[in-house]
């Protein structure tokens, strides 16, 4: 059980990193400093961006549940 949760945790961590890096800049960062913010503000939120948000939240919930599960296993020796 512990090994399974650890593998899922590593995969969720990698996926969450990729999904966060795939998000478009919302302005205020380095992308807007070089003119990327103007283009991001002109285009609306697309279906792809909304789905990417949903997938990021789902992977984050899985990541948190794996951490809680591993902590419970370590604390109670389940």
UniProtKB/TrEMBL annotation:
It is found in: Cell membrane. It is a multi-pass membrane protein. GO terms for molecular function: protein-transporting ATPase activity. The keyword Transmembrane helix applies. It comes from the Bacteria. The chain crosses the membrane at residues 6-22, 55-76. Its main location: membrane. GO terms for biological process: intracellular protein transmembrane transport; protein secretion; protein transport by the Sec complex. Pfam families: SecG. GO terms for cellular component: plasma membrane. The keyword Transmembrane applies. Keywords: Cell membrane, Membrane, Protein transport, Translocation, Transmembrane, Transmembrane helix, Transport. Belongs to the SecG family. Involved in protein export. Participates in an early event of protein translocation. This is Protein-export membrane protein SecG.
């Amino acid at each position: 059980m512990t090994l399974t949760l650890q593998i899922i945790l590593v995969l969720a961590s990698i996926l969450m990193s990729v999904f966060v890096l795939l998000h478009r800049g919302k302005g205020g960062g380095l992308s807007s400093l070089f003119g990327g913010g103007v283009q991001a503000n002109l285009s609306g939120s697309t279906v792809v961006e909304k789905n990417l948000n949903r997938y990021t939240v789902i992977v984050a919930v899985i990541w948190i549940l794996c951490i809680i599960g591993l902590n419970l296993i370590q604390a109670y020796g389940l």
